[in-house]
Design goal:
- By secondary structure, the protein is α/β, with parallel strands linked by helices.
- 37% of the residues lie in helices and 15% in strands.
- The strands form two sheets. The protein has a five-stranded parallel sheet with strand order 7-6-5-8-9, with helices on one face. It has a four-stranded parallel sheet with strand order 2-1-3-4, with helices on both faces.
- α3 packs across α4.
- Bound molecules: phosphoric acid mono(formamide)ester.
- Phosphoric acid mono(formamide)ester binds next to α2.
- The site of phosphoric acid mono(formamide)ester (CP) has 9 residues, from α2.
């Protein structure tokens, strides 16, 4: 039994298999409509979500399976003080696989230690979000045609943005990938990622504060929201929340084939006028999340057509 807690829990080869399967599902979704018949997915969400929870549920329903779960800690026995360990022990006897989102970093890892079903981390604090990474990789592969030879700009809240941390971890495994980190000083990528991953492995990267200047060099621009819920101080959030706003004027500096990704939800960081630019692919990215999760569920449950 395999759990997916970090994007590195899938080898490059396994990842390729999941992405290939997701692409096959996109081509012929009907073919897969019964392959999880009789299986149940539990979605244990201790923190708000629209895309991740609903796309997991849509994925299982598309595969002919069933779903159960809760969408907030308040509507579960966590509100009465139940531990994640006890909850997953119980849920293991109700479902075949589970996706867990939790505000505490490491909670899905703890759950995996007590679980007898595969646990998928659906986002833990500011740490990791491996199925968003799978979604991002599928989007890049499908729309850019490659996962190597890319200059990727990450812009916004690089400190708390778990989707950023997960995607960096995944992308360093491909050849000739360079990173440009665009953030205010207070929201730089964490030191552990710079020192223990990028510097250690001599991965080329630069940190800048001006988005326009680096736009022409980017193949992908990954915009992120400033994560209000992770700030201790509202004043700091208000001061930093609009640090970077991508608008139509800034898009004029970008390559014709640069893609704009965003894990969503968006607040102010991408002006809605950008939505109609063919390079803005964030809604397509959210759509691909269903196919990525269908492929991952099939892989973890070891089912095929
Ligand atoms: N991208 C993402 O994780 O969105 P939700 O918070 O809506 O699940």
């Amino acid at each position: 039994m395999k759990h997916i807690i970090s994007p590195l829990d899938l080898s490059v080869k396994e990842l390729e298999e999941v992405l290939d399967l997701a692409e096959q599902i996109i081509e012929d979704p009907k073919k897969y409509s019964e392959c999880c018949h009789g299986k149940k997915l539990a979605t244990l969400f201790y923190e708000p979500s629209t895309r991740t929870r609903l796309s997991f549920e849509a994925a299982m329903l598309n595969l002919g399976g069933n779903i159960l779960g809760f969408s907030s800690a308040d509507s579960s026995s966590a509100a009465k003080g139940e531990s994640v360990a006890d909850t997953i022990r119980v849920v293991s006897s109700y479902a075949d696989i589970c996706a867990m989102r939790h505000p505490k970093e490491g909670a899905p890892l703890v759950a995996s230690m007590y679980s007898s079903i595969p646990v998928i981390n659906a986002g833990d604090g500011g740490h990791n979000h491996p199925t968003q990474t799978l979604t991002d990789l599928l989007t890049i592969k499908k729309l850019k045609g490659r996962l190597d030879n890319l200059t990727i700009g990450f812009c916004g809240d690089l400190k708390f943005g778990r989707t950023v941390h997960s995607l960096i971890n995944a992308m360093v495994r491909y050849d000739n990938v360079k990173f440009v980190f665009i953030s205010p000083e207070e929201l730089r990528i964490p030191a552990y990622l710079r020192e223990e991953l990028l510097d250690r492995d001599n991965i080329p990267y630069q940190e800048v504060k001006n988005l326009e200047k680096v736009m022409p060099s980017l193949d992908l621009l990954y915009m992120t929201r400033v994560q209000k819920e992770r700030f201790f101080n509202e004043e700091d959030y208000i001061r930093l929340k609009d640090s970077f706003i991508l608008d139509a004027q800034k898009m004029t500096y970008a390559k014709d084939d640069m893609l704009v990704l965003h894990p969503l939800p968006r607040v102010n960081e991408i002006a809605t006028e950008v939505d109609n630019d063919p390079r803005a692919v964030y809604f397509k990215q959210a759509e691909f999340g269903v196919y990525a999760r269908m492929a991952l569920i099939m892989k973890l449950l070891n089912v095929s057509v």
